[in-house]
Amino acid sequence: MTEKLIFEISRPGRRCVRLSALDVPEKPLDDILPGRHRRSTPPRLPEVSELDVIRHFTRLSQMNYCIDTNFYPLGSCTMKYNPRIHEDVAGLDGFRRIHPYQPFGQVQGILQLLDEFTGMLKKICGLSDFSLQPAAGAQAELLGMMIVRAYYRKKGEPRKKIIIPDSAHGTNPASAALCGFDVVEVKSNAMGQIDIKALKEAMSPEVAALMVTIPNTLGIFESEIREICETLHDAGGLVYCDGANMNAMLGRVRPGDMGVDLLHLNLHKTFTGPHGGGGPGSGPLGVSKALAPFLPVPRIEHKHGTYMPGYAAPDSVGRVKPFYGNIGVIIKAYSYLLSIGQDGLSGVSEAAVINANYLKQRLSGHYDIPYPEGCMHEFVLSGRKQKKLGVSTLDIAKRLLDYGFYAPTIYFPLIVEEAIMIEPTETESKETLDAFVDAMIKIAEEAQNTPELVRKAPHNTPVGRLDEVKAARKPDLRWSFS
Ligand SMILES: *Cc1c(COP(=O)(O)O)cnc(C)c1O
Predict the structure, then answer these.
(1) pLDDT in tens, 226-279
(2) The CATH number of the domain where 159 resides is what?
(3) Is 134 touching ligand 1 by the criterion CB < 6 Å?
(4) Rounded distance from Cα 144 to ligand 1 centre (Å)
(5) Which string of DSSP letters, residue by residue, matches 244-313?
(6) Domain containing 377 — which CATH number?
(7) By residue range, what is the domain housing residue 273?
(8) pLDDT of residue 482
(9) For residue 217, which atom of ligand 1 is closest to its CA?
(10) How far apart are CA 13 and CA 15, in angstroms?
(11) Ligand 1 center–CA 224 separation, angstroms
């Protein structure tokens, strides 16, 4: 399957739509749009028929791999099914056709929804308040760091350091550094957990917070989290939990009860919002009581039976996005929580964890497993056994495409050699998981018997192996919109 650019199928004079003859008096164009605002040459638009357009985009959509077509075991990304009912709810006229500048008397419904949703998140996480403003996990991390900074400034003790374990998600050190903090790394122990001794050695009055991903990027829960939080709190520090992996803990443990002071959730992961190209994201940030005054504005206030935006918050860090964030995603997440119900939460995390453990067990005879104990919602394999046969983890990932699967996350986390990070999620059936395992085992056998076949993969995709460095450094931009 190949597809030309739409500019390449363009033929001069070909048109989708031809307007019929004018039936009103013609006016000079200058009366409507003065010449200085008009371009002197026509835009270089493709000239195509309606059927050309339909076929072109339909074919492109068929080349697209997505959760609606097949299994997507992308570690750390929680690519779960996005139920269609949530799209219907978010598409209701009363939600779709509103505007944030409408008088708040006219938008009571959405304000109530956002307020109720905030309440649900507070309950699920055991935290005091949430901001729905951040548009992504990484933006929530940045907001969290801004709040940590504002908190210490207000206390008159500006602290400079953020401790981050080597098993954290890559956005964590980036967010801390972007906010002006110095990042101090602590190593994991042989169990893949934070080494408490190393943490205690890294502590000082300069430390503002620990940023910890739970479960971490190895798919392992920090079983010493209570002691970790106490260590920080005893030294006047805070604990930020990257909660993008909340799919492993929903309905089972509340981060606030563990001692976490700040936490973000990814509605486009755990709460079934479409991910990646499917739409904008949402990364609500939750905080403890002491940090609530620093949250962004506007906040939804509920007084005398009326919901209204509140801007009076002298310690607020301001805003990271207009109004209440990407409310379309929030409506879908709200719809999700209503559809599974409070009692359904623990079933989600249970199935997510069982699915991951099932895959890990079935693959264990065929690939190296650096952390062999049980995992949470995801786990990390190592392709080092195959590497010795001359087949890299990248080759294995490319070969999976031939078998019709999206490739897992590879070469991350950095602490595992030839890492292959797999997250099945709870929405997959045993048949799908088995088909994936069969493909992985087949590839392990191919690495032994026909390594060349794996090294040259993919063979069945629209394009073969791309030169990724060249694609990034010398992009082929054949058409510029001049
Ligand atoms: C996805 C993810 C992030 C970043 O979230 P975005 O919404 O992609 O910015 C941060 N931490 C973890 C553990 C993640 O899985």
Answers:
(1) 999 999 999 999 999 999 999 999 999 999 999 999 999 999 999 999 987 667
(2) 3.40.640.10
(3) no
(4) 14
(5) TTGGGTTTT--HHHHT-SEEE--TTTTT----GGGS-----EEE-GGGGGGS-S-EEEEETTEEEEE---
(6) 3.90.1150.10
(7) 84-339
(8) 40
(9) 13
(10) 6
(11) 23
